[in-house]
Amino acid sequence: MDTTRLKKVLQNKESDVKKKLYALSLALHDQNLKDLEKRSLVKIREAIDRIDMGDYGVCASCDAAISDNRLETLPEADYCDSCHSIIDE
Ligand SMILES: [Zn+2]
Predict the structure, then answer these.
(1) Does the pLDDT value for residue 82 go beyond 90?
(2) In angstroms, what is the C-alpha Rg of the chain?
(3) How far is the CA of 70 from the centre of ligand 1 (A)?
């Protein structure tokens, strides 16, 4: 797992979400959408922190390794495939 590259992906996502939040802050009316974007920003930051701490790619629920496939699709994922199907991420 190339975490250096995934960290770049996450940082790009972070700046995209920040831009979206800024645009939303100008529009102001869609609070649900803003909350959704804020949550995803938190998850992205947590994932970047996990890369920095060296515990990236480990399921927050069962401690199993999160599959590379899943991390490629959703680099900020904090649950493995089986926990994700139980816990609504
Ligand atoms: Zn799990």
Answers:
(1) yes
(2) 14
(3) 12
